[in-house]
From TrEMBL:
TM region(s), chain numbering: 12-33, 39-59, 79-101, 113-133, 145-165, 220-242, 272-295, 307-324, 336-355
GO biological-process terms attached to the record: spore germination
The protein's name in its UniProt record: Spore germination protein GerKB
The keyword Transmembrane belongs to this UniProt entry's keyword annotation: yes
Family: Belongs to the amino acid-polyamine-organocation (APC) superfamily. Spore germination protein (SGP) (TC 2.A.3.9) family.
PANTHER family tied to this protein: SPORE GERMINATION PROTEIN A2 (PTHR34975:SF2)
Source organism of this protein record: Caloramator australicus RC3
Keywords attached to this entry: Germination, Membrane, Transmembrane, Transmembrane helix, Transport
Membrane-related topology note: Multi-pass membrane protein
One Pfam family hit: Spore_permease
Location of this chain's protein in the cell: Membrane
GO cellular component: membrane
Length: 363
């Protein structure tokens, strides 16, 4: 049962859908797309964004019909208790492992650029504890934190984009559309999963005051994320060119470090923007923890998600330490996408959409 005071507005829902996907992907995606489709990465980003909108439509159509149930109970209603539980279990594993990989990548990146001599564990454990504290306070507290973070981040990103616009060589974006169709399709998959996190919408319907308005706010949020990613990709290519961008581990961070502020009124802008990135990835981690706690509490029939949040934190910490290096962490994340990401983000929403239509047709 969801308390009456633990509800969010459609505006807060849009902020959650907007801020949850923006984490590690905004740093690494330009290099991935430069390798796959060279200058045509912005096309795959737009196509990936459109595909996300289609999935959001499927999720919203099912979610608003069963807004009082939530994901796990909806699966049980559509497919029966046994099969519904089986279908929900991979989603729980997906969010557990996804959280662990985000924590590890956060720790490795922070150690690489900010806290060089700090042990990895001392970077990862504090953010896990902070995310746990915020998650235990409920979705309304999470949404209020997202509201506070959004305007600061949006203003800063706007200023950064203005700084780079006149200093870029946009002829580096040529030629256009000179790419094999199969490579473009593969890059659309990369673009889609760089936006992963929007699927938490399925878990939020019991907490939305007006579920019928969820589709509109979610589509607007995905549109803004897609535009942001397109701008970041274009700026990286225009600044560095395709060949150099494809060799960088974090092209976006390299773009920030190459900045030259007029009048030099800010020294070390990369430190400031990296701090803002920490806030961004914190929002991602918070929502992933909230997601696994919701699914996990429903699976083990625990009414209070506060207990579920703490219960699985040790597991997340242990999983995050499995890869030996940052390269293995990214490889582990790719495998997660292949085995669980396609199921959670694509297959399950489509399957539930079809099942809800069939069940509705049968009365």
């Amino acid at each position: 049962m969801v308390p009456n005071d633990d509800k969010i507005s459609t505006f807060q829902l849009g902020l959650i859908i907007y801020l949850t996907p923006i984490g590690v992907g905004i740093f690494t995606l330009p290099a991935v797309l430069a390798k796959d489709v060279e200058t045509n990465g912005w096309i795959s980003l737009i196509l990936g964004g459109l595909f996300c909108m289609l999935i959001i439509y499927f999720i919203s159509d099912v979610g608003k019909k069963y807004s009082n149930l939530g994901l796990v109970e909806t699966l049980k209603f559509l497919f029966g208790k046994v099969l519904g539980t089986i279908l929900a279990f991979p989603v729980f594993i997906y969010y557990i492992v996804f959280t662990a990989m985000e924590i590890r990548i956060f720790g490795e990146t922070t150690k690489m650029y900010l806290l060089f001599k700090t042990p990895l564990e001392y970077i990862m454990i504090p953010i896990l504890i902070l995310a746990m504290i915020l998650t235990r306070n409920g979705i309304e507290s999470i949404a209020r934190f997202f509201e506070a973070a959004f305007f600061l981040i949006a203003f800063t990103l706007f200023l950064v984009i203005l700084i780079y616009l006149p200093k870029s060589d946009y002829s580096n974006l040529l030629p256009i559309l000179r790419v094999e169709p199969l490579k473009l399709i593969k890059s659309v998959s990369d673009s889609l999963f760089s936006l992963s996190g929007f699927e938490v919408l399925f878990l939020l319907f019991p907490f939305i005051r007006r579920p019928e308005k969820a589709l509109r706010s979610s589509l607007i949020a995905i549109s803004f994320i897609t535009i942001l990613y397109v701008v970041v990709f274009i700026q990286c290519i225009a600044r560095f060119g395709v060949d150099y961008t494809s060799t960088l581990l974090y092209p976006t961070l390299s773009l920030i470090k190459s900045s030259d502020i007029p009048g030099a009124f800010i020294e070390g802008i990369e430190g400031l923007l990296f701090s803002l990135w920490i806030v961004l990835i914190f929002t991602t981690i918070v929502m992933l923890i909230f997601a696994y706690s919701i699914v996990g509490s429903n699976l083990i029939k625990q009414k209070e998600i506060k207990h579920t949040v703490i219960l699985f934190l040790p597991m997340i910490y242990v999983i995050s330490l499995i890869p030996d290096s940052i390269a293995e962490t990214f490889e582990f994340t790719d495998k997660l996408v292949i085995f669980l990401g396609y199921y959670t983000i694509i297959a399950l929403p489509i399957l539930m959409f079809i099942a809800s239509k069939i069940k509705g047709a049968r009365g």
